Amino acid sequence: MDIFITQEEINKQKKTAAKVRERFAKLGAVPKVFIQTYGCQQNEADSERLCGLALLCGYGRTDNAKDADLIIVNTCAIREHAELRTLSITGGYKKLKEQKPEMLIMLCGCMAQEEHIRKKLYSSYPYVDAVFGTDMNHRLPDIIWDSLHSEKRLSFVSDLLHNEFGVIAEETPVERLSKYKAWVSVMYGCDNYCTYCVVPYVRGRERSRNSDEIFREVQKLIREGYKDITLLGQNVNSYNGDYSFPGLMKRISSFDGDFRLRFMTSHPKDASRELIDVMASSDKIARHFHLPVQSGSNEVLRRMNRRYTREKYLETAFYIRERLPDAALTTDIICGFPGETEEQFEDTVSLVREVGFDMIYTFLYSSRPGTAAAEMDNQIPHGEKTKRFNRLSEIENEIAQKINESYIGNTIRVLSDGENGRSSQNKIVNFDKPYPDGEFVNVKITAAHPYALDGEVLI
Ligand code: SAH
Ligand code: SF4
Ligand code: F3S
User: Fold this and answer.
1) Domain 411-458, CATH
2) DSSP state of 379
């Protein structure tokens, strides 16, 4: 199956967008689109492309659902909590639709790929006009046109669950939220099938963009003055174009311009020395490595299907520390994976102490329908998961506080967001006075907290 959407198809969408635009112009209407995004950077990147297409259809952007003529909820399915919240917020749009019946409400993203969610939407959310899946985004103009001309509720979802590939659509317009930070997807989907994770089912198989397209996009961003560019993929190390992922990073870091290059996310089973060496070779590559460990117990890692051991993880982490001594190392951890014993959880605690992470994103295990772990015995009670979560958070707070204190007195380069900014390590730095956003500025660090630094802006 051809995963690349043809230029013809993209042109067809652009034609439909022109038709939608004309329709609104004839009515003398200036419609507005509101896009609500949940989940990871992949979804944020997708929303920026959805917004680009909506603008091509003649919509203006609004940040207020009340002013919208089109609401698009771009959803995340990673944990049940995220889904419940999304459904409850979508429920709140019922009132808006009653006041403005011609308004369109659409739900897309990872939840749209789940059959049980589609059933629920169909039976209990009659005011949702259209649902579309993660490989339908480029068809937004058709979806809008059809929804405007149909009394029926529409569903555009392909069967990623059963091994259809998912697609790559180049050259759709993009409306970026930031003028200086940009996401660049290098690959889509995931083939790793970690047993707890829904992503392979809702995002389809791994597929990589052409490296030339990536270089073109990054060069354009640099020309436009973007200063912080993040290459995105569920497992960037599996990038499989004309370049390897380290090769891609090396090439981009050789581009002229004052920018920082980041990437998200790297899987520990494939995070190579070569990648770490490339990072060390260029000061354009941000000093931040996010390397999700999930657990410190070999038995739990095995049952998670992570395909690395605690020892292998530590080896990579120590190599990062050795080659990139000024880099921040962050991770993801799941508390209460089915069958996780107290002892196995203590293995995670000891790994956390051994590595000394700058930051940990800790999650309570959430059972996802259709995944292998959902069928495992010994699901851990909520109270126990929370206990482990709290214990880990306390320990990490101390570690992060200590690491951050080591910055006090140093002067570091920060990309300003106005009142605060981000260091190369991706640490939040609070300023003593505002500084124009999108500019780099030197800041002298005066105080440390577990999740932020305070500093004096040096002008
Ligand atoms: N591709 C990325 C992860 C994306 S999901 C990677 O492999 O690193 C982000 C994080 O959500 C994961 O690292 C994991 O810690 C967490 N997560 C995923 N599924 C989960 C589940 N069912 N319950 C709790 N946390 C989960
Ligand atoms: Fe999920 Fe694992 Fe793929 Fe990450 S690598 S998206 S955790 S299946
Ligand atoms: Fe969520 Fe989908 Fe990302 S499930 S974490 S939005 S890939």
Assistant:
1) 2.40.50
2) P
Mean pLDDT of the 368-383 span: 96
CATH classification for the domain delimited by 289-405, as one of 3.50.50.60, 1.20.1260.10, 2.40.100.10, 3.30.750.200: 3.30.750.200
* CATH, range 7-156: 3.40.50.12160
DSSP H helices, 241-381, are 245-253, 273-281, 298-303, 310-323, 342-355
Report angle CA 67, 69, 71 to the nearest 5 degrees. 90
Q: What is the pLDDT of residue 363?
A: 98
The token duo for 360 is: 């940990």
- Tokens representing residue 168 in the block: 């790559």
In angstroms, the CA 87 to CA 100 distance is 20
Can you give the C-alpha Rg of the chain in angstroms?
23
Statement: 178-286 belongs to CATH 3.20.20.80: no
Quote the ligand 2 centre to 203 CA distance (angstroms): 10
Give nearest CA residue, ligand 2 atom 5. 192
Measure 270 CA to ligand 2 centroid, in angstroms. Answer: 13
Taking a C-beta distance cutoff of 8 angstroms, is the pair 83, 75 a contact? yes
CA distance 301 to 304: 5
Phi, psi of 216 (to 5 degrees): -60, -45
Mark out the alpha helices in 125-206 (DSSP H runs). Answer: 140-148, 199-203
pLDDT in tens, 306-351: 999 999 999 999 999 999 999 999 999 999 999 999 999 999 999 9
Task: Give the tokens for residue 131.
Answer: 């649902």
- CB–CB of 140/107 below 8 Å? no
Token couple for 365: 């295990």
Q: Where are the beta strands (DSSP E) in 181-287?
A: 181-185, 187-188, 207-208, 228-232, 260-264
pTM, full prediction: 0.96
- Mind listing the pLDDT tens digit for each residue in 182-213? 999 999 999 999 999 999 999 999 999 999 99
What are the φ/ψ torsions at residue 2 (nearest 5 degrees)?
-80, 120
Closest ligand 2 atom, CA of 306?
A: 2
Residue 63: C-alpha distances to residues 123, 172, 177 (Å): 29, 22, 11
Residue nearest to atom 18 of ligand 1 (CA): 197
Nearest-ligand number for the alpha carbon of 233: 1
CA–centroid distance, 337 to ligand 1, in Å, is 12
Cβ contact 57:21 at 8 Å: yes
